[in-house]
Amino acid sequence: MAERFKLEGIYTPIITPFDADGEIEFDALGELVERLVAAGVHGLISGGSTGENYAETVDERLQIARFVVDRVKGRLPVFVGTGAMRTPDSIALAQGAREMGATGILLGTPPYSVPTERENALNALAIDRAANLPVILYNYPGRMGVEMGRDFLDRVGRSKNVIGIKESSGDINRVHLLARDYPHIQMSCGMDDQALEFFAWGARSWICAGSNFLPEEHIALYQACAVQGDFTKGRRIMTAMLPLMRVLEQGGKFIQCVKHGVETTGLTAGPMRPPLKGLNKDEKRELEQVIRTLKATVKAICEGN
Questions:
Q1: Fewer C-beta within 10 Å: the chain N or C terminus?
Q2: Res 4: pLDDT
Q3: Are 264 and 213 contacting, i.e. CB atoms less than 8 angstroms apart?
């Protein structure tokens, strides 16, 4: 099963809507899932950092993932994030993913502990064994403290379950390394402002938080680059999207921006769980203006103007 799975298209790491008391808003989550399915995204990821997994218990994360898998009813692949500080927690999430019928797991490095390549590989393989499902590795040294380097990739890449890697290092040389030396591990864009470069180097998928609220526009870039091979059109779409990338990273308020973006579409996202706080009025206004301009520009490009 794992070796045949094709990582293709736009995968949305979905937010977790909360109410004012910080309780999970399952109705709002269901509405978001339906909106994304209708928009044509190609897959969903439950329990990523965009879903505020660091502020949720393992039980809550399993509850959310189970809800998403049940709601999707096989219409799209659903991957479950297993990222956690404690290996037993990651293993519980991996086993839960298998039991609930998820498509696969997203497997990151445990943050803060700074494992060696060998320790990180053995940890990843233990989580992989617990799920025995397709695995997307998640390389994000900015959050985890260490990189999934050659030694790690050589060890872990031998597992038949390891189908892809979400590359979020921001280092373009990693894209070259993965494309050239690890072609059997499908490369997925995890650095939004490098999406065009990832597609140019053969990536067929993009795991992008912005698709929570701009799914059609993210799909348009994938279609232009990966499907049509039209990088001239792709550059125009990417140029229109770059102001969004800049705002999403403003002062590190990434999840806050994504959640407000979802609110602008008429869906409920609610507040963040602590320690995060929402955007102020000016930040909201700036984001809304960027979204309006982006939508109008990408629409014009796709209509051939």
A1: C
A2: 73
A3: yes
